[in-house]
Amino acid sequence: MADEYVFIDEWDVNAPQEAVFDALADARTYPEWWRPVYIAVEADCAPEVGCVSRQEFKGRLPYHLKTRSEIVRLERPRELEVSVVGDLTGKGIWTLTPSNGGVHVHFDWRVVADRPLLRVLTPVLRPLFRWNHNWSIKRAMEGLEPYARSRVAG
């Protein structure tokens, strides 16, 4: 699809795989460790297939996005897939593999910008949207490891 964004992000986290998986699977934790990207997340269920959460998030660009995510596959502590609708529509797959005493995180994020203004601007601003995504993922890289490690220590 020409207007689809495909983002593949990978990094290593020096924390136990289970703690990293728990943080990624429970979107309610995102505002605690994925700052300042995630502003609010609401969910009334623990991470399980069928659990729905609603997110509000932002990057460096001057707009907020709102999405609704549903867990469609959960294979603890290895893989998590969510279906997303809202300002962005598509899917995200987190895959975790053991690596050097920690865990390697692979995030496959494939979405279409469904907000009318974003849809119109996609052809022109694609490089800027990619830069915005990269900035946001850097915040995840900075926050996930200390958060997951604190969950084990605490």
Task: Write a structural description.
The chain is of the alpha+beta class. It has one domain: START domain (Alpha-D-Glucose-1,6-Bisphosphate, Chain A, domain 4), CATH 3.30.530. The protein is built from three helices and seven strands. The chain has helices at residues 17-25, 30-33, 116-153; strands at 4-13, 38-43, 52-58, 64-75, 79-86, 88-99, 102-113. The model has no long low-confidence stretch (mean pLDDT 94).
Core attributes:
alpha+beta; 3 helices
Q: What portion of residues is helical?
A: 25-40%
Q: How far apart are the first and last residues' alpha carbons, in Å?
A: 45 Å
| CATH level-4 homologous superfamily | START domain
Question: Which range does the strand content fall in?
Answer: 35-45%
Largest sheet data = 7 strands, antiparallel
- What is the rounded Rg? 15 Å
Tell me the count of domains.
1
Label the structural class.
Answer: alpha+beta
CATH class: Alpha Beta
Rounded mean pLDDT is 94
Q: Spatial order of the strands in the main sheet?
A: 1-7-6-5-4-3-2
What is the CATH topology? Alpha-D-Glucose-1,6-Bisphosphate, Chain A, domain 4
Low-confidence stretches: none
**How many DSSP H or I helices?**
3
Element order, helices and strands? EHHEEEEEEH
**CATH hierarchy: architecture:** 2-Layer Sandwich
Shape: globular
In brief, what are we looking at here?
The protein is α+β, with helices and mostly antiparallel strands and 154 residues long. Helix content is 33%, strand content 44%.
